[in-house]
Design a protein that fits this description.
Helices cover 27% and strands 23% of the residues. It is of the alpha+beta class. The protein has 3 domains: 138 residues, no CATH class; 71 residues, Elongation Factor Tu (Ef-tu), domain 3, CATH 2.40.30; 88 residues. It starts with a helix and ends in an 8-residue tail after the last helix.
């Protein structure tokens, strides 16, 4: 399982900074969401006016620095983020072009991109069949349903542990159902009498959109529905999205902490790096789409 916080570190270190460590410090004491003076645990060397600091999902703009007391005066909730309370020993990311908030937004943008390329999550919903009821609410599936892959019914002989796949004509998906009857607005309607046995379970397997991330503690697989391979593609796609907005980011003084000779980092390598990442991303997406379609194919509905 991968948390958003761990994913952000991977993206920033592996793709955006080419393995080079980011500049960090630690808070020396707790702060509220209104405090504008921060005391740091380590030397404030390298922090200057106009620089951006990032703690959790909040960005701050530096207005003044007193190196002798390791104190920094900041504007809270800067660059479209929200001010929040933070604790002593929380990590302070110094002068990064890509803050935690930037990366979280890019992750969600990448999820939208993956959906537009035909990728999807899989979710299931189990209900108890009643011959007097035709419709079954799919409220247990939290993300928007794109289509139903299969509907299964359990054998009335529970000891057999056997499930039967219903014919595609035995059910239909309703995505704009009356919320008085179906609170989620989405339902499976059983269209053939006797398709299942009273009191047995019916299991709906559906393709859905990906859930969106909102906190550093979110578990990516759990919240989004991505597989492990899908998470890898999302991390790579997030880097591609960020580098597309700043293809020359490696030439920025904010990124390159140590001077390097032209022979070590050429102009051509700067330009080629985002292109190489994009090619890797495109290949991963194609492979994932092929795998998902093979594992969860839709059956043709003949009308």
């Amino acid at each position: 399982m991968t948390s958003v916080a761990n994913a952000i570190t991977q993206i920033r270190t592996r793709y955006l900074r080419g393995g080079r460590a980011e500049r960090r410090n630690l808070l020396a004491a707790n702060i509220t969401d209104t405090d504008t003076s921060l005391t740091l645990k380590h030397d404030a060397t390298g922090i200057s006016r106009g620089m951006r600091l990032s703690i959790d999902l909040e960005d701050m703009h530096v207005h003044d620095v007193v190196p002798t007391s390791k104190t920094v005066t900041v504007e809270r909730g800067a660059y479209g983020t929200t001010a929040a309370a933070h604790s002593a020993d929380d990590v302070v990311v110094v002068g990064t072009p890509w803050s935690n908030a930037d990366l979280l937004a890019a992750m969600n943008a990448t999820l939208s991109d993956l959906e537009s390329r035909g990728l999807f999550a899989i979710a299931t919903k189990e209900a108890t069949f009643d011959s007097g009821v035709d419709g079954y609410d799919l409220s247990g599936i939290s993300n928007e349903i794109l289509d139903v892959v299969d509907v299964w019914t359990r054998s009335p002989v529970s000891a057999s542990k056997k499930w039967h796949r219903l014919d595609i004509g035995d059910w239909s998906l309703v995505t704009s159902a009356d919320t008085t009857d179906f609170t989620s607005g989405t339902a499976i309607i059983m269209t053939r009498p006797g398709a299942a046995w009273d009191g047995t379970s019916i299991l709906v397997k559906a393709r859905t959109r990906f859930g969106r991330l909102s906190a550093l503690t979110d578990d990516i697989e759990t919240v989004t529905g991505l597989t492990t391979s899908g998470v890898d593609a999302m991390l790579l796609g997030t880097a591609v999205h960020l580098l597309a907005a700043a293809p020359m980011g490696d030439l920025s003084l904010d990124v390159v902490g140590d001077p390097r000779r032209d022979s070590e980092v050429t102009y051509q390598s700067m330009v080629a790096s985002p292109s190489n990442l994009r090619r890797m991303y495109e290949l991963q997406v194609r492979n994932l789409r092929t795998l998902l379609e093979a594992q969860h194919p839709l059956r043709l509905r003949v009308r």
